[in-house]
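Let's practice the habit of predicting before peeking. Look at the sequence and jot down your guess about where helices and strands might fall. Then scroll down.
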Amino acid sequence: QVYLVETGGGSVQPGESLTLSCKASGLNFKIPTMDWYRQAPGNQRELVASITSAGQTEYSDSVKGRFTVSREYARRTTYLQMSNLQPEDTADYYCHTYYNRDFWGQGTRVTVSS
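Done guessing? Here is the structure:
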């Protein structure tokens, strides 16, 4: 069974930074693309960032230049470094991968407010 466990959410003020982590188990971590999604209250879940097994990254326009996705194979962990956070970044953040089927983590909440 594949498990994805996110940690690192919290409450910050605008302009501050947070790093989210997603630890994977039950899969060959070298294979799949790992994604970060977020869902704000009342909104649909949206793709924020992706990283392939080769290290290629993609970002949504709303976070490009502020967020960085990376993965550490030894720790089977994917990271989302978020800087210059703004109130519109407030959301539940989810780790996702497709490994024969879709797998999601339980989510971690990020709140940005002054």
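How did you do? The radius of gyration is 13 Å.
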